[in-house]
Amino acid sequence: MSHPDPYGSPEPRGWDRPERPPALPWPERDVEPTGPWSRLSGADLYAGPQARPRPHVHHDEPVGDPYGGPGDDADRHDADRDPRYDGHREDRYDRPGPAWPVRDDDVPTSSLPPVRDDDMPTSQFPPVPQEPEPEPQRPPGRRRGRRRASADRPATGQSAPSRAGRNLPAAIGVGLGLGALILVPLFFYRPAFLAVVAAAVGVGIWEMARAVRRSGAHPPLAPLVAGGVLTVGLAWFAGPDALSLGLLVTVLGTMIWRLGDGPAGFQRDLTAATLIAVYVPFLGGFAALLAAVPDDGHLRVLLTLVAVVLSDTGGYAAGVSFGKHPMAPSISPKKSWEGFAGSVGAAAAGSALLIWLLFDVPPWWGALFGVAVSGAAVLGDLAESMIKRDLGVKDMSNLLPGHGGLMDRLDSILFAVPTAYLLLAVFVPVVG
């Protein structure tokens, strides 16, 4: 005989407890279900009668011990009702679907007739035509990017660039404008030519300082521009010695100005400033030396400019027509030895004729002058191409349509004017 319940229950515990548990004083929904309801989730247990079918349970069947082994009455009871049961209790809780047979008469919606398409009232109406969606409105303003060409939208007519990569009509127009800006003050009011040279030097310094910032250098712009204008003025009024003095003053002024920004990057910035001071104002000062000659300074400038223009034009024509062997592919892939031969030939022929007409010098001296000036112009062009390639820029700026920046036009002249100044200082006085 088992011991009585220590909590006051008069019923015995353990094996003497009857098979059917007594009724509980609280609702059955709070008790964890056993038997066939254990296969349903919590949401299915408390759903309404319309949400789930009621199980068909035979109350006269015996219920086995829920804690029995795999061969007890409960397992045999489930195996009889569920043909999928294989004798393992834990598999019953993993298989989806109810473990008891559900008949059609237990489902309340099984007696409803099926719904056909012709019973729907909306099937009698004709389909509503779909209107095409309107195209999105583009905001007013400048359109960015290029439009793709198609059969409905042909390509926009644009002027194709030449084989040299330039917009040739724009380049010719800008070149003629620059030539007029130089020649008109040179022949009619020579001191105005000094202002043109000083302005060109200032713009060139700005473009160079802007370009070298891509390498991390920050040369001071204000002392460079002021020193460049001073260098050109000293060359105009005091000659070659004053030109060198102007370069020295520009470099020293830049160094003193840069000291105010601290030691960080001082050497890098000063190196870039010295390069700009030598490249732009010092070489450009030789144009002021040429024009400052009292009697024929304007003719010397004209001869030099014509030789540079002939060199550029002859090289362009020969390179486009016959260029096959690149001259310096790692620096300027478009330059060829055929183009260089055209540059030298055109400059030599034009200079020989022009120096004989202007200065009464034998033509062979003019040919030599043209060859030297053309070689210096090509060297200057290659030097700037190397600088731009090292800095990772295509043009120094977009100031001049068809040409890029002003330095892209001054690159040849800056190397040509010192050569022309030295050769004319020798040829004209000796032969004349």
**What is the H/E string?**
HHHHHHHHHEEHHH
Query: What is the beta-strand fraction?
Result: under 5%
Number of domains: 2
Number of strands: 2
Largest sheet entry: 2 strands, antiparallel
The whole-number mean of residue pLDDT values reads 75
Span of the ends, CA to CA: 150 Å
Instruction: State the shape.
Output: extended
The residue ranges in which pLDDT falls below 50 over 5 or more consecutive positions are 40-47, 57-79, 87-95, 153-162
Radius of gyration: 49 Å
Helicity, as a percent range? 40-55%
Number of helices: 12
- Strands ordered across the widest β-sheet: 1-2
The helix/strand class is mainly alpha
Describe this structure in words.
This protein is mainly alpha-helical and 432 residues long. The protein folds into 2 domains: 27-96, no CATH class; 168-431, no CATH class. The chain has helices spanning 42-45, 73-81, 89-92, 168-188, 190-212, 221-238, 240-259, 266-291, 297-322, 337-359, 363-391, 407-431; strands at 326-328, 332-336. A two-stranded antiparallel ribbon has the order 1-2. The protein is extended. The termini are far apart.
